[in-house]
Write a structure and sequence with these properties.
The protein is α/β, with parallel strands linked by helices. The strands form 6 sheets. Strands 6, 7, 8, 11, 13, 15, 16, 17 and 18 form a 9-stranded mixed beta sheet that branches. Strands 2-3-1-4 form a 4-stranded antiparallel beta sheet, with helices on both faces. The chain is built from 12 helices and 22 strands.
Length: 489
Protein backbone atom coordinates (compact mmCIF):
# COMPACT_ATOMS: atom_id res chain seq x y z
CA UNK A 1 0.00 0.00 0.00
CA UNK A 2 1.06 3.62 -0.40
CA UNK A 3 2.66 4.93 2.74
CA UNK A 4 1.43 8.27 4.02
CA UNK A 5 3.99 11.02 3.82
CA UNK A 6 3.48 14.75 3.86
CA UNK A 7 3.92 16.47 0.54
CA UNK A 8 3.47 19.96 -0.77
CA UNK A 9 0.75 20.98 -3.18
CA UNK A 10 1.25 23.21 -6.19
CA UNK A 11 4.84 22.13 -6.85
CA UNK A 12 6.40 23.59 -10.01
CA UNK A 13 9.11 22.33 -12.28
CA UNK A 14 12.80 23.03 -11.73
CA UNK A 15 12.98 25.18 -14.90
CA UNK A 16 10.17 27.40 -13.66
CA UNK A 17 11.84 27.74 -10.27
CA UNK A 18 15.14 28.78 -11.89
CA UNK A 19 13.39 31.33 -14.10
CA UNK A 20 11.48 32.74 -11.14
CA UNK A 21 14.63 33.08 -9.10
CA UNK A 22 16.40 34.83 -11.96
CA UNK A 23 13.57 37.34 -12.20
CA UNK A 24 13.50 38.05 -8.44
CA UNK A 25 15.48 41.06 -7.22
CA UNK A 26 18.32 40.07 -4.92
CA UNK A 27 16.90 42.29 -2.20
CA UNK A 28 13.47 40.61 -2.17
CA UNK A 29 12.71 38.59 0.98
CA UNK A 30 12.23 34.86 0.36
CA UNK A 31 8.65 33.68 0.49
CA UNK A 32 7.59 31.89 3.67
CA UNK A 33 7.52 28.12 3.22
CA UNK A 34 4.12 26.65 2.53
CA UNK A 35 2.58 24.52 5.26
CA UNK A 36 2.81 20.80 4.49
CA UNK A 37 -0.26 18.81 3.48
CA UNK A 38 -1.24 15.26 4.44
CA UNK A 39 -1.19 12.83 1.49
CA UNK A 40 -4.86 11.89 1.91
CA UNK A 41 -5.87 15.55 1.65
CA UNK A 42 -3.51 16.19 -1.27
CA UNK A 43 -5.17 13.36 -3.23
CA UNK A 44 -8.59 14.83 -2.42
CA UNK A 45 -7.67 18.30 -3.56
CA UNK A 46 -6.32 17.10 -6.89
CA UNK A 47 -9.87 16.23 -8.01
CA UNK A 48 -11.98 18.40 -5.70
CA UNK A 49 -14.78 20.37 -7.40
CA UNK A 50 -16.81 21.41 -4.35
CA UNK A 51 -15.80 21.67 -0.71
CA UNK A 52 -14.21 19.25 1.74
CA UNK A 53 -13.36 19.13 5.43
CA UNK A 54 -9.87 20.10 6.53
CA UNK A 55 -8.11 20.22 9.90
CA UNK A 56 -6.07 23.42 9.98
CA UNK A 57 -3.18 23.06 12.44
CA UNK A 58 -1.68 26.25 13.82
CA UNK A 59 1.02 27.26 16.24
CA UNK A 60 -1.99 27.89 18.46
CA UNK A 61 -5.76 28.02 18.06
CA UNK A 62 -5.73 31.76 17.34
CA UNK A 63 -3.43 31.26 14.34
CA UNK A 64 -5.63 28.47 12.97
CA UNK A 65 -8.77 30.59 13.45
CA UNK A 66 -7.18 33.55 11.70
CA UNK A 67 -6.20 31.38 8.73
CA UNK A 68 -9.72 30.00 8.38
CA UNK A 69 -11.20 33.50 8.57
CA UNK A 70 -8.69 35.00 6.12
CA UNK A 71 -9.41 32.36 3.48
CA UNK A 72 -13.19 32.46 3.84
CA UNK A 73 -13.58 28.85 4.98
CA UNK A 74 -16.49 27.84 7.22
CA UNK A 75 -15.61 26.74 10.75
CA UNK A 76 -17.08 23.41 11.83
CA UNK A 77 -15.43 22.99 15.25
CA UNK A 78 -12.08 23.44 16.92
CA UNK A 79 -9.69 21.56 19.20
CA UNK A 80 -8.38 24.54 21.11
CA UNK A 81 -5.95 22.68 23.36
CA UNK A 82 -3.92 21.40 20.39
CA UNK A 83 -4.32 24.43 18.11
CA UNK A 84 -6.57 22.88 15.44
CA UNK A 85 -9.62 24.33 13.69
CA UNK A 86 -11.82 22.03 11.60
CA UNK A 87 -13.25 23.86 8.60
CA UNK A 88 -14.93 23.35 5.25
CA UNK A 89 -13.46 24.91 2.15
CA UNK A 90 -12.69 24.70 -1.54
CA UNK A 91 -9.38 23.55 -2.96
CA UNK A 92 -8.41 27.18 -3.55
CA UNK A 93 -9.24 28.20 0.00
CA UNK A 94 -7.32 25.27 1.45
CA UNK A 95 -4.33 26.02 -0.77
CA UNK A 96 -4.47 29.65 0.38
CA UNK A 97 -4.50 28.56 4.03
CA UNK A 98 -1.01 27.11 3.53
CA UNK A 99 0.35 30.64 3.15
CA UNK A 100 -1.21 32.05 6.31
CA UNK A 101 0.99 32.96 9.31
CA UNK A 102 1.20 30.30 11.99
CA UNK A 103 -0.30 27.45 9.91
CA UNK A 104 1.81 24.33 10.47
CA UNK A 105 -0.09 21.47 8.81
CA UNK A 106 -3.25 20.68 6.82
CA UNK A 107 -4.99 17.36 7.40
CA UNK A 108 -7.98 15.74 5.69
CA UNK A 109 -11.07 14.08 7.16
CA UNK A 110 -9.89 10.53 6.42
CA UNK A 111 -12.28 7.58 6.71
CA UNK A 112 -11.77 5.05 9.49
CA UNK A 113 -13.55 1.82 10.36
CA UNK A 114 -14.42 -0.36 13.32
CA UNK A 115 -11.97 -3.19 14.04
CA UNK A 116 -14.43 -6.05 14.40
CA UNK A 117 -14.21 -9.37 12.91
CA UNK A 118 -15.75 -16.06 29.11
CA UNK A 119 -12.49 -14.45 28.18
CA UNK A 120 -11.72 -13.08 31.67
CA UNK A 121 -10.25 -16.44 32.66
CA UNK A 122 -7.28 -16.28 30.30
CA UNK A 123 -6.43 -12.71 31.39
CA UNK A 124 -6.79 -13.59 35.10
CA UNK A 125 -9.24 -10.72 35.25
CA UNK A 126 -11.92 -12.71 37.07
CA UNK A 127 -9.27 -13.84 39.56
CA UNK A 128 -8.29 -10.21 40.19
CA UNK A 129 -11.89 -9.17 40.90
CA UNK A 130 -12.51 -12.09 43.26
CA UNK A 131 -9.21 -12.05 45.18
CA UNK A 132 -7.80 -8.50 45.10
CA UNK A 133 -9.06 -5.32 46.71
CA UNK A 134 -8.59 -1.63 46.09
CA UNK A 135 -7.31 0.93 48.60
CA UNK A 136 -10.76 1.13 50.21
CA UNK A 137 -10.93 -2.63 50.78
CA UNK A 138 -13.60 -3.33 48.15
CA UNK A 139 -13.22 -5.68 45.18
CA UNK A 140 -10.77 -4.51 42.55
CA UNK A 141 -13.35 -4.13 39.80
CA UNK A 142 -12.57 -0.70 38.34
CA UNK A 143 -14.75 1.25 40.77
CA UNK A 144 -13.99 4.94 40.93
CA UNK A 145 -12.83 5.09 37.31
CA UNK A 146 -14.72 6.09 34.17
CA UNK A 147 -13.81 4.63 30.78
CA UNK A 148 -14.61 6.75 27.73
CA UNK A 149 -15.79 4.48 24.91
CA UNK A 150 -15.57 6.27 21.56
CA UNK A 151 -17.67 4.14 19.24
CA UNK A 152 -20.97 3.83 17.38
CA UNK A 153 -22.96 4.50 20.55
CA UNK A 154 -24.56 2.58 23.40
CA UNK A 155 -27.86 1.23 24.61
CA UNK A 156 -27.72 2.44 28.23
CA UNK A 157 -30.85 0.47 29.14
CA UNK A 158 -29.28 -2.87 28.19
CA UNK A 159 -29.39 -5.38 31.08
CA UNK A 160 -25.60 -5.79 30.97
CA UNK A 161 -25.22 -2.19 32.24
CA UNK A 162 -27.77 -2.46 35.04
CA UNK A 163 -26.43 -1.87 38.55
CA UNK A 164 -27.98 -3.71 41.51
CA UNK A 165 -29.89 -0.54 42.48
CA UNK A 166 -31.39 -0.30 38.98
CA UNK A 167 -29.18 2.57 37.78
CA UNK A 168 -27.02 2.33 34.69
CA UNK A 169 -23.25 1.93 34.44
CA UNK A 170 -23.42 4.65 31.77
CA UNK A 171 -22.85 7.90 33.69
CA UNK A 172 -22.57 10.18 30.65
CA UNK A 173 -24.11 9.76 27.21
CA UNK A 174 -22.83 11.95 24.37
CA UNK A 175 -23.08 12.30 20.62
CA UNK A 176 -20.48 13.74 18.25
CA UNK A 177 -22.22 15.85 15.61
CA UNK A 178 -18.94 16.86 13.97
CA UNK A 179 -19.01 13.81 11.72
CA UNK A 180 -21.53 15.22 9.27
CA UNK A 181 -20.41 18.84 9.58
CA UNK A 182 -23.57 19.85 11.43
CA UNK A 183 -21.63 21.21 14.39
CA UNK A 184 -21.86 24.93 14.91
CA UNK A 185 -18.66 25.50 16.87
CA UNK A 186 -16.42 23.95 19.48
CA UNK A 187 -19.34 22.25 21.24
CA UNK A 188 -20.35 19.83 18.50
CA UNK A 189 -20.03 16.94 20.98
CA UNK A 190 -23.33 17.25 22.84
CA UNK A 191 -24.91 15.53 25.81
CA UNK A 192 -28.04 13.46 25.23
CA UNK A 193 -30.45 12.07 27.85
CA UNK A 194 -29.08 9.09 29.74
CA UNK A 195 -31.80 6.75 28.48
CA UNK A 196 -31.28 7.52 24.77
CA UNK A 197 -30.03 4.51 22.77
CA UNK A 198 -27.44 6.18 20.54
CA UNK A 199 -26.44 2.85 19.03
CA UNK A 200 -29.89 2.26 17.57
CA UNK A 201 -29.99 5.86 16.36
CA UNK A 202 -26.74 5.28 14.45
CA UNK A 203 -27.86 1.81 13.25
CA UNK A 204 -24.73 0.36 14.82
CA UNK A 205 -24.39 -2.15 17.67
CA UNK A 206 -20.60 -2.19 17.80
CA UNK A 207 -20.39 0.30 20.68
CA UNK A 208 -22.82 -1.56 22.90
CA UNK A 209 -20.86 -4.79 22.44
CA UNK A 210 -17.52 -3.07 23.13
CA UNK A 211 -18.87 -1.27 26.21
CA UNK A 212 -20.09 -4.54 27.67
CA UNK A 213 -16.59 -5.99 27.37
CA UNK A 214 -15.24 -2.98 29.26
CA UNK A 215 -17.68 -2.85 32.16
CA UNK A 216 -20.58 -5.27 31.83
CA UNK A 217 -22.09 -6.05 35.23
CA UNK A 218 -22.14 -9.69 36.47
CA UNK A 219 -25.11 -11.21 34.64
CA UNK A 220 -26.68 -14.66 34.50
CA UNK A 221 -28.27 -15.49 31.16
CA UNK A 222 -31.44 -17.54 30.84
CA UNK A 223 -29.37 -20.53 29.71
CA UNK A 224 -27.40 -20.38 32.98
CA UNK A 225 -24.27 -18.86 31.49
CA UNK A 226 -22.56 -16.13 33.53
CA UNK A 227 -20.90 -13.11 31.96
CA UNK A 228 -19.03 -10.12 33.31
CA UNK A 229 -17.02 -7.29 31.80
CA UNK A 230 -13.33 -6.77 32.42
CA UNK A 231 -14.03 -4.04 35.00
CA UNK A 232 -17.56 -4.70 36.29
CA UNK A 233 -17.41 -1.76 38.70
CA UNK A 234 -16.15 0.89 36.29
CA UNK A 235 -18.37 3.63 34.90
CA UNK A 236 -18.89 4.23 31.19
CA UNK A 237 -18.83 7.54 29.35
CA UNK A 238 -20.15 6.81 25.87
CA UNK A 239 -19.34 9.15 23.00
CA UNK A 240 -21.22 8.12 19.88
CA UNK A 241 -19.60 8.95 16.55
CA UNK A 242 -22.14 7.00 14.52
CA UNK A 243 -21.76 3.74 12.65
CA UNK A 244 -19.92 5.35 9.70
CA UNK A 245 -16.69 6.94 10.86
CA UNK A 246 -14.56 9.84 9.69
CA UNK A 247 -11.55 11.05 11.60
CA UNK A 248 -13.03 14.46 12.56
CA UNK A 249 -15.88 12.83 14.51
CA UNK A 250 -13.49 10.57 16.39
CA UNK A 251 -10.94 13.32 17.03
CA UNK A 252 -13.73 15.56 18.32
CA UNK A 253 -14.58 12.84 20.83
CA UNK A 254 -10.94 12.59 21.96
CA UNK A 255 -10.83 16.36 22.24
CA UNK A 256 -13.97 16.31 24.42
CA UNK A 257 -12.26 13.83 26.75
CA UNK A 258 -9.19 16.07 26.90
CA UNK A 259 -11.33 19.01 27.96
CA UNK A 260 -13.68 17.13 30.32
CA UNK A 261 -11.90 14.08 31.74
CA UNK A 262 -11.75 15.44 35.29
CA UNK A 263 -15.53 15.99 35.51
CA UNK A 264 -17.24 14.14 32.64
CA UNK A 265 -20.74 14.76 34.01
CA UNK A 266 -20.14 18.48 34.49
CA UNK A 267 -19.14 20.74 37.33
CA UNK A 268 -20.79 19.97 40.62
CA UNK A 269 -21.35 16.26 40.03
CA UNK A 270 -19.28 14.43 42.67
CA UNK A 271 -16.65 11.90 41.64
CA UNK A 272 -18.36 9.10 43.56
CA UNK A 273 -21.35 9.56 41.24
CA UNK A 274 -19.42 10.25 38.04
CA UNK A 275 -15.72 9.33 38.34
CA UNK A 276 -13.00 11.00 36.26
CA UNK A 277 -12.06 9.44 32.94
CA UNK A 278 -8.70 7.65 33.17
CA UNK A 279 -8.76 5.64 29.94
CA UNK A 280 -10.34 5.83 26.48
CA UNK A 281 -11.18 2.85 24.28
CA UNK A 282 -10.81 3.31 20.52
CA UNK A 283 -11.83 0.24 18.55
CA UNK A 284 -11.52 1.92 15.15
CA UNK A 285 -8.87 3.15 12.75
CA UNK A 286 -7.81 3.33 9.11
CA UNK A 287 -7.46 0.06 7.25
CA UNK A 288 -3.99 -1.12 6.27
CA UNK A 289 -1.67 0.62 8.71
CA UNK A 290 0.71 3.27 7.45
CA UNK A 291 3.46 5.52 8.73
CA UNK A 292 3.41 7.39 12.01
CA UNK A 293 2.27 10.99 11.56
CA UNK A 294 3.24 13.10 14.60
CA UNK A 295 1.55 16.13 13.01
CA UNK A 296 -1.93 14.56 13.00
CA UNK A 297 -4.62 15.77 15.36
CA UNK A 298 -5.07 12.23 16.69
CA UNK A 299 -1.45 12.02 17.82
CA UNK A 300 -1.52 15.50 19.35
CA UNK A 301 -4.69 14.62 21.25
CA UNK A 302 -3.50 11.26 22.60
CA UNK A 303 -0.20 12.81 23.71
CA UNK A 304 -2.05 15.63 25.48
CA UNK A 305 -4.26 13.04 27.18
CA UNK A 306 -1.22 11.07 28.36
CA UNK A 307 0.28 14.26 29.78
CA UNK A 308 -2.91 14.72 31.82
CA UNK A 309 -2.99 11.16 33.12
CA UNK A 310 -5.34 9.47 30.64
CA UNK A 311 -4.38 6.20 28.90
CA UNK A 312 -5.45 5.70 25.25
CA UNK A 313 -6.17 2.13 24.10
CA UNK A 314 -6.41 1.21 20.40
CA UNK A 315 -7.50 -1.92 18.55
CA UNK A 316 -4.52 -3.08 16.47
CA UNK A 317 -6.68 -3.73 13.39
CA UNK A 318 -7.96 -6.73 11.47
CA UNK A 319 -5.73 -6.75 8.40
CA UNK A 320 -3.64 -9.82 9.33
CA UNK A 321 -0.27 -9.78 7.59
CA UNK A 322 2.97 -11.72 7.55
CA UNK A 323 5.42 -9.17 8.91
CA UNK A 324 6.56 -7.92 5.49
CA UNK A 325 4.82 -4.56 6.09
CA UNK A 326 3.18 -2.75 8.96
CA UNK A 327 -0.60 -3.13 9.03
CA UNK A 328 -1.15 -2.16 12.66
CA UNK A 329 -3.32 0.57 14.13
CA UNK A 330 -2.74 3.34 15.03
CA UNK A 331 -0.54 3.87 11.96
CA UNK A 332 3.15 3.55 12.80
CA UNK A 333 2.45 3.52 16.57
CA UNK A 334 3.29 6.24 19.07
CA UNK A 335 6.23 5.74 21.47
CA UNK A 336 4.59 7.91 24.15
CA UNK A 337 3.97 5.99 27.37
CA UNK A 338 0.32 5.19 28.00
CA UNK A 339 -0.75 4.78 24.35
CA UNK A 340 -1.46 1.09 23.73
CA UNK A 341 -2.16 -0.99 20.63
CA UNK A 342 -3.86 -4.32 21.35
CA UNK A 343 -3.64 -7.47 19.23
CA UNK A 344 -6.23 -10.27 19.35
CA UNK A 345 -5.53 -13.47 21.29
CA UNK A 346 -7.66 -16.59 20.74
CA UNK A 347 -7.92 -19.06 23.61
CA UNK A 348 -9.59 -21.52 21.21
CA UNK A 349 -12.62 -21.50 23.51
CA UNK A 350 -10.70 -23.22 26.32
CA UNK A 351 -10.13 -20.31 28.73
CA UNK A 352 -6.43 -21.19 28.82
CA UNK A 353 -3.40 -18.92 28.41
CA UNK A 354 -1.57 -20.85 25.70
CA UNK A 355 -3.76 -20.15 22.69
CA UNK A 356 -2.88 -18.48 19.41
CA UNK A 357 -2.71 -15.09 17.74
CA UNK A 358 -5.94 -14.52 15.82
CA UNK A 359 -5.37 -14.91 12.10
CA UNK A 360 -7.03 -11.57 11.35
CA UNK A 361 -5.07 -9.59 13.97
CA UNK A 362 -2.90 -6.95 12.26
CA UNK A 363 0.83 -7.56 12.30
CA UNK A 364 3.57 -4.95 12.39
CA UNK A 365 6.61 -4.95 10.10
CA UNK A 366 9.02 -7.57 11.43
CA UNK A 367 11.98 -5.30 10.68
CA UNK A 368 10.52 -2.27 12.48
CA UNK A 369 9.69 -2.84 16.17
CA UNK A 370 8.12 0.62 16.43
CA UNK A 371 5.15 -0.76 14.45
CA UNK A 372 4.53 -3.82 16.63
CA UNK A 373 1.42 -4.05 18.84
CA UNK A 374 2.05 -3.51 22.55
CA UNK A 375 0.28 -6.59 23.91
CA UNK A 376 -2.57 -9.02 23.30
CA UNK A 377 -5.99 -9.62 24.86
CA UNK A 378 -8.90 -11.96 24.04
CA UNK A 379 -10.64 -10.81 20.88
CA UNK A 380 -12.05 -13.93 19.26
CA UNK A 381 -15.49 -15.38 20.03
CA UNK A 382 -16.32 -12.78 22.67
CA UNK A 383 -19.87 -12.74 24.02
CA UNK A 384 -21.20 -9.36 25.13
CA UNK A 385 -24.18 -7.04 25.02
CA UNK A 386 -25.93 -6.82 21.65
CA UNK A 387 -29.38 -6.66 20.12
CA UNK A 388 -30.24 -8.72 17.06
CA UNK A 389 -32.03 -5.74 15.53
CA UNK A 390 -28.69 -3.97 15.06
CA UNK A 391 -26.61 -4.77 11.96
CA UNK A 392 -23.30 -5.57 13.65
CA UNK A 393 -24.93 -7.64 16.38
CA UNK A 394 -26.81 -9.62 13.77
CA UNK A 395 -23.49 -10.86 12.37
CA UNK A 396 -22.87 -12.90 15.52
CA UNK A 397 -23.56 -16.62 15.31
CA UNK A 398 -24.52 -17.30 18.94
CA UNK A 399 -27.45 -15.11 20.03
CA UNK A 400 -28.38 -15.59 23.68
CA UNK A 401 -31.11 -14.27 25.92
CA UNK A 402 -30.48 -11.98 28.87
CA UNK A 403 -31.79 -12.45 32.39
CA UNK A 404 -35.29 -10.99 31.91
CA UNK A 405 -38.29 -12.47 30.13
CA UNK A 406 -38.13 -9.72 27.52
CA UNK A 407 -34.33 -9.81 27.09
CA UNK A 408 -34.49 -11.86 23.91
CA UNK A 409 -31.37 -11.93 21.75
CA UNK A 410 -29.64 -9.33 23.91
CA UNK A 411 -26.19 -10.98 23.83
CA UNK A 412 -24.12 -12.28 20.94
CA UNK A 413 -20.62 -13.44 20.07
CA UNK A 414 -18.37 -11.33 17.82
CA UNK A 415 -14.64 -11.41 17.01
CA UNK A 416 -12.05 -8.75 16.22
CA UNK A 417 -9.36 -6.59 17.75
CA UNK A 418 -12.32 -4.32 18.56
CA UNK A 419 -13.09 -6.89 21.23
CA UNK A 420 -9.47 -7.18 22.43
CA UNK A 421 -8.97 -3.46 23.09
CA UNK A 422 -11.86 -3.05 25.58
CA UNK A 423 -10.47 -5.91 27.66
CA UNK A 424 -7.35 -3.82 28.15
CA UNK A 425 -9.32 -0.60 28.71
CA UNK A 426 -11.22 -2.28 31.53
CA UNK A 427 -8.01 -3.71 32.97
CA UNK A 428 -6.46 -0.23 32.92
CA UNK A 429 -9.42 0.92 35.04
CA UNK A 430 -8.60 -1.83 37.55
CA UNK A 431 -4.98 -0.69 37.66
CA UNK A 432 -5.96 2.93 38.26
CA UNK A 433 -8.26 1.79 41.06
CA UNK A 434 -5.33 -0.10 42.60
CA UNK A 435 -3.04 2.94 42.31
CA UNK A 436 -4.87 6.20 41.57
CA UNK A 437 -1.54 8.07 41.46
CA UNK A 438 -0.08 5.96 38.64
CA UNK A 439 0.98 7.67 35.43
CA UNK A 440 0.00 6.35 31.98
CA UNK A 441 3.63 5.33 31.40
CA UNK A 442 3.63 3.36 34.67
CA UNK A 443 0.39 1.63 33.66
CA UNK A 444 1.94 0.62 30.33
CA UNK A 445 5.12 -0.65 32.01
CA UNK A 446 3.10 -2.75 34.46
CA UNK A 447 1.06 -4.31 31.66
CA UNK A 448 3.89 -5.00 29.22
CA UNK A 449 6.33 -6.14 31.88
CA UNK A 450 4.06 -8.89 33.19
CA UNK A 451 2.30 -10.38 30.14
CA UNK A 452 2.09 -14.13 29.70
CA UNK A 453 4.41 -14.84 26.79
CA UNK A 454 2.47 -17.51 24.95
CA UNK A 455 4.53 -19.15 22.24
CA UNK A 456 2.31 -19.15 19.16
CA UNK A 457 3.42 -17.02 16.23
CA UNK A 458 6.55 -14.95 15.78
CA UNK A 459 9.47 -15.36 18.19
CA UNK A 460 10.06 -12.75 20.86
CA UNK A 461 12.93 -10.27 20.60
CA UNK A 462 13.98 -7.90 23.36
CA UNK A 463 13.08 -4.32 22.41
CA UNK A 464 12.96 -1.42 24.85
CA UNK A 465 13.52 -3.76 27.77
CA UNK A 466 10.64 -6.14 26.92
CA UNK A 467 10.51 -9.44 25.04
CA UNK A 468 8.08 -8.61 22.25
CA UNK A 469 7.01 -9.73 18.78
CA UNK A 470 5.56 -8.25 15.61
CA UNK A 471 2.27 -10.17 15.83
CA UNK A 472 1.32 -10.31 19.54
CA UNK A 473 3.48 -7.66 21.20
CA UNK A 474 4.73 -8.67 24.64
CA UNK A 475 2.09 -11.39 25.00
CA UNK A 476 -1.24 -11.98 26.73
CA UNK A 477 -2.24 -9.46 29.39
CA UNK A 478 -2.07 -10.79 32.98
CA UNK A 479 -4.18 -8.68 35.32
CA UNK A 480 -3.02 -10.13 38.63
CA UNK A 481 0.67 -9.85 37.74
CA UNK A 482 0.26 -6.31 36.38
CA UNK A 483 -1.42 -5.12 39.59
CA UNK A 484 1.30 -6.71 41.69
CA UNK A 485 3.99 -4.95 39.68
CA UNK A 486 2.21 -1.60 39.78
CA UNK A 487 1.56 -1.65 43.51
CA UNK A 488 4.69 -3.53 44.58
CA UNK A 489 2.58 -6.10 46.37
Amino acid sequence: MRRSSRRLLGAVSGAVVVAALAATPASAAPAAPLAPVQDFLADQLAALTGTTTVLVHGTDAAAARAAVAATGMRTITEFERIGVVVASGTAGQIEAARTQPGVTYLEGNAPIEFSQETSNTATRGAEAVSTLTGPDGTALDGSGVSVAVIDSGIDPTHPYFRNPDGSSAVVANLKSLCLVETGTGPDCVVRVPGIVDTDTLSVGGHGTHVSGIVAGRPTTLTDGGRLTGAAPGASIVSISTGAVLLIVGADAALNWVLENHEAPCGAGVPADVCPPIKVTNNSYGPSGGGEFDPNSATVKLQRALAAEGVVTVWAAGNDGGDGSASLTNPPGQDPTGGILSVASYFDQDTGTRDGVVSEYSSRGASADPSTWPDLSAPGENITSSCRLTLPICATGLDPRNGPGLLDLGTFNTISGTSMAAPHVAGIVAQLFEADPTATPAEIEAALKGTTHRFTDGAPYATVGGYPTSYDKGTGLVDVVAAIARLTGS
